[in-house]
Amino acid sequence: MRILVVNTGSSSVKVRVLEDDDGLSLSSDLPGPADALGPEDFAGVLAQAGPIDAVGHRVVHGGTRYDRAVLVDDAVMASLRSLEDLAPLHQRASLDTLETVRRLAPELPAVACFDTAFHAGMPPAASTYALPRRWQLRHPLRRYGFHGLSHAYASRRAAEILGLALARLRIVVCHLGAGASLAAVDGGRSVDTTMGFTPLEGLVMATRSGSVDPGLVLWLAQHGVTTEELVEGLEHGAGLLGLCGTGDMRTVLARAAGGDPDARLALDVYDHRLRGAVAAMAAAMGGIDGLVFTGGVGEHAAEVRRRAGEGLGFLGVRVDAEANEAAGPDAVVSPPGAAVPVVVVAAREDVEIARGVRRLLGHGP
C-alpha cells in the first residue's frame, strides 16, 4: 500500500507518502497554522502524492472510545468533534484537515490514528485520578496520555537497534520536543506516562508548565487571575519560556553555557523534573532495560542527554561522552556493556500511522 500520512501540528502540517517498506516518496511540510491552509493547498498535496491507497491522519485525542486506529465516517467525525474541548490546541485543527482531505478524495479510506490510543490500556492504578466518585461518574476523568504514536514507534525501533525482543524489555521513552512526555513501555505496552487528562501534566516543556500544585492554580483563581489568564499562562507563558524568556532549548543551552543565571535555573529545573520522571517510569515497571530519547530536543540536545544520564547512574544508566556528542538519530550513546543501554531514535510518527492504517485495512500485522 502507498499511504499518505497527514500529521497536523500547531505550527505546520507534515505530509508524507510511505511505500510498502516505509520508504518515503514524498516529504513536505506545509507552513501553518493549519487553519491558514485552504483546500487548494491539500489539492496540491494530493496531486504531488500520485496514486495512493489510503490516508492516515494523526488525531491527538481519541477519548475513552477509540483505543486503536479507526476508519472515519460522518458518525466517527461527529464523535471526534465532541472531544475538541479536551485538546483545544490540536483536535480541531487535525479534524478540519481530515475533513478537507476527505472532501477532496472521498474515494480514499480516511483513517484516524490517535496519540492517546497507545496509553488506553494502562493499568487503572496509572490511569485513575483520586477524585470524588460523583465527578468521575459525570465526566470522562482519567489520565489519557499523549505522544502515543511517537512512544510506540520509538520503543519498537529501539529494540530493533539493540537487537533485542521488545516483548522482553522495559523501556522508558523520553519524547522531548516543544511538548514533552515520558512513557513506561513494558513488553511493548504503555503502563504509565507523564501527561494526563491534558498535555499540561508532567515535564517542564517549552511553554507549558508541566505539573504544578492544583492548590496553586486555585489560589491564583481566588486572587483575581481569570480562567483565560490561567489558560494562557500555563499553556503559552510557562515552562522554559516562563523561567528564562525563551522556549527554544538551543537558546537556553547556549545562554546557560555563557553563565546566564535564568537559563541555568531553567535548565536545572527541566533536568530535575526529567530525571525524577524517568525514575518514576522505571518504578512503574519494576526496573529499566533501556532509555530512549526522541523528539527535537531528545534527538539533538546532547547536553540534555548527558545531564539526564549523569543523574540516573543509580539505575544503571550511563552515557558515553564521545558517542553522545557525535550521535545522530538511531544510535546507541551508552558505552558497550552498559546495564541500561541509551538510544537516540528519530521521531517517526508517520511510520506508526502508516502501520496503523495497514493493520486496520488488513495489510499488516
In words, what does this structure look like?
The protein contains 15 helices and 12 strands. It is α/β, with parallel strands linked by helices. α6 crosses α15 and α10 packs across α11. The model has no long low-confidence stretch (mean pLDDT 96).
Topology:
Elements lengths: L2 E6 L3 E7 L5 E8 L7 H11 L4 E6 L10 E2 L2 H8 L9 H14 L5 E5 L9 H4 L5 H6 L9 H15 L7 E7 L3 E7 L2 E5 L20 H9 L4 H10 L2 H6 L4 H9 L3 H25 L4 E5 H6 L1 H10 L9 H6 L4 E2 L9 E3 L4 H12 L5
Parallel strand pairs: 1-4, 4-6, 7-10, 10-12
Antiparallel strand pairs: 1-2, 2-3, 5-6, 7-8, 8-9, 11-12
Helix pairs in contact: 6-15, 10-11
Top keywords for this entry?
365 residues; alpha/beta; Nucleotidyltransferase, domain 5; 2 domains; 6-stranded mixed sheet; 15 helices
Brief digest:
With 365 residues, the chain is of the alpha/beta class. It has helices at residues 39-49, 74-81, 91-104, 124-127, 133-138, 148-162, 214-222, 227-236, 239-244, 249-257, 261-285, 295-300, 302-311, 321-326, 349-360, and strands at residues 3-8, 12-18, 24-31, 54-59, 70-71, 110-114, 170-176, 180-186, 189-193, 290-294, 331-332, 342-344.
Strand content: 15-25%
Determine the CATH superfamily of the largest domain. ATPase, nucleotide binding domain
Order of helices and strands: EEEHEEHHEHHHEEEHHHHHEHHHEEH
Give the helix/strand class.
alpha/beta
Poorly predicted residue ranges: none
Distance between the termini: 14 Å
CATH architecture of the largest domain: 2-Layer Sandwich
Number of domains: 2
Main β-sheet, in a few words? 6 strands, mixed
Strand elements, count: 12
Overall mean pLDDT score? 96
- CATH overall fold name of the largest domain: Nucleotidyltransferase, domain 5
Quaternary class: single chain
Q: State the helix count.
A: 15
Give me the side-by-side strand order of the main sheet. 3-2-1-4-6-5
Principal-axes shape call:
globular
**Helical residue percent?**
40-55%
CATH class of the largest domain: Alpha Beta
